[in-house]
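Retro notes, item 3 of 5
We never archived the inputs for the NDP complex last cycle. Fixing that now. Sequence and ligand:
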Amino acid sequence: MAPKTPKSASKSSSAPEVTPPPPGETTTVITATTTLDLPAHPKTLTYEELNPKSKPTEFFGPLGTFAVSSLCPTVAYFLYYGCNETTGCPAMTANGWRTIYDRVANNDWPSQAGKWWDWQAAGAFMAWYVYCIVCWIVLPVQPVEGTLLRDGKRKKYWMNGHYTVLLTLGLVAGFLMRPGGIEAFTWIYDKWVPLVSASLAMAFVQACWVYVWSFFSGELLAQGGNSGNVVYDWFIGRPLNPTFPGFPNFDIKTFNEVRPGIIGWLLLNISCACEQYVRLGRLTNSMVLALLFEVYYVIDTYLDESAILNQIDITTDGFGFMLAFGDLVWLPFTYGVSIRYLAFAPKDLSPLAVVAILAVEGAGLYIFRTSNSEKHDIRHGRNPKNLTFMQTKRGTKLLTSGWWGRSRHPNYFGDWLIALGWCLPTGFDTPITYFYVVFLVFLLTCRQMRDDEFCRKKYGDDWDKYIKLVPYKIIPYVY
Ligand code: NDP
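Structure as it came back at the time:
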């Protein structure tokens, strides 16, 4: 006889549907009951709840940030005054340093390149910045959504940096091909320090502006930049994604990160190469190598411009003096010190040296690109190499094989090798041209520690498990 369905088991009943057992058998029904107190509408967080106060812990607090914001500009100037055609690289005698000090203090540098300030250079820098904004507005754009923000929104970014680079390189090529174009382009090299000063002034103004505006704009704040200490928050960056009133799509942070500074660096490098050409009548193989490496690094940024939206600078850091200075002064004026050196101290490398330098750079590029694309793939739901991973409670996957199984930041290792390849063409006559490599060791080690800390907060005990599986921090099997 077919079992009957009890009348009580209607769909509207809260009790589960029960099928009676066949005669002679007993069935026990266990009903789990749970109560969920869901609010009628998700609670909207207030501004204060979204932007809790933070502690000024990074860079040893307010005093540390004050020291860094004074020291870094000093280093940017020092790299010029300590390494140039007038006083050497570096000036090896006490007398040499005395001369530098006197000339700098009295603003009495023999060439325009070492003057503190020059209105022409300031005007040129402003024109360059405006040109970058105009390119951003008028060139075709690809809108890309950024990471999910704490307020549940995503920002839309206009990506068209690759068109800006192409247009700029096209204009520069046209300029250089004109009679006298190469000589004229050395103008940038000849205004080195005034351009540093103009960029520094811009970074300072931007940092002040975004700090003040963040009190009125209602914009989301960076979780680490809301300590209440003026110097600390101004340096670390109070607003997460500052904009300009009336231009909600103009994200000052991403714009600075991938436009005026990094493309400006390209122009500085080209100008240095022009300087060498004007002096020698040719380019040395060391200059060609260093130039190709650095130009490629810039172009590589634009092969997948949207990848920057996953970087800590964009997702987590606020925008303040640290990033404004880093983007506008530090990157363009200190990363290419080796090329500036080669402009006035040309060097011809042996074929063996060329091969060795190419090998270092090639290895760096390979590790940098492969590791970044392995991470990019897994973050976009792809796994073409069938790499092993850890599924975390947070919902995302952590790779445990491939480059990310060898160390927790293999991309930093690749980056460092790339940087070494930029410096090696200068030979071993001076330590100053190795400044960038040494600095990068410091930067990437600090960054790795910060990211480890962020990941521990994000992933909890999953991160501890991951660290056991991948114990090396940056250099596989070494550190
Ligand atoms: P990463 O690109 O290395 O990103 C770190 C994030 O990756 C973590 O927060 C985590 O975020 C995710 N992650 C960590 N481990 C794994 C894993 N095993 N599998 C998958 N995802 C993982 O850091 P940065 O943003 O610092 O650097 C970006 C690039 O920029 C790097 O290539 C770096 O070398 C370069 N860079 C260059 C500088 C220079 O001046 N030359 C300065 C700074 C950076 P989540 O899990 O939330 O996705």
